[in-house]
Amino acid sequence: MSTSVRAQVEPATNLLISKSKSRVTYVLQHPLHIIRGVSKDVTGTVNLMPDTLGSEISISIPVSSFDTGNESRDSHALEVVEGFKYPMVRFNGIAIRPETQGKISGWLIEGEVEFHGVKKQISFIAHPSLLEGQAHVTGSFGISLEAHQVERPKLLFFPVKDSLRIELDLVSENEIK
């Protein structure tokens, strides 16, 4: 955890995630190319405690909000993940603590991701900072399409890789005071 952020969360701070400044990106690999889908329709909250251990994060994203720049591909993706049956992707982080892995330090966030109606436990390193007085958190993690019961789409008879990388770029709506 960044010292500047830690110093700013005395006492507990409740932050809203800014829709206008935040985004979540998925990265899907196919043997012939890489697909990136971006959503700017991110809602959620971050409740920071001074020691971070009691902190929580909650994020929701409509599946239909991801844009790859190819309307046909986005429509097909919505069908594959059954976006009308399972319209939201959610993450709830309940364990947040400072962590250093080699030369990289940040927050280790543990929680549950819900995708395609399946909930799975995950953990990842997030990197907090202050951006013009607002909390800014970046991080990424991978999920398995098959573990979430999503049939991997194929292009030219080759399926996409099972691993779907999720990249977070979250900015708070309100300032840390």
Question: Can you give a write-up of this model?
Answer:
- The protein has a single domain (3-175), classed as Lipocalin.
- 9% of the residues lie in helices and 56% in strands.
- It has two helices and twelve strands.
- Strands 1-4-5-6-7-8-9-12-2-3 form a ten-stranded antiparallel β-sheet, with no helix packed on it. The protein has a two-stranded antiparallel sheet with strand order 10-11.
- It is globular, with a radius of gyration of 17 Å.
- The model is unreliable at 1-8 (pLDDT under 50).
Query: Judging from the principal axes of the Cα atoms, what is the shape?
Result: globular
Low-confidence stretches: 1-8
Helix content: under 10%
Q: Under CATH, the topology is which?
A: Lipocalin
Number of strands: 12
C-alpha end-to-end distance? 17 Å
Sheet with the most strands, sense and barrel status: 10 strands, antiparallel
Radius of gyration: 17 Å
Beta-strand percentage range: over 45%
Strand order of the largest sheet: 1-4-5-6-7-8-9-12-2-3
- Overall mean pLDDT stands at 85
**What is the chain-wise order of helices and strands?**
HEEEEEHEEEEEEE
Number of helical segments with 4 or more residues: 2
| Category by helix and strand content | mainly beta
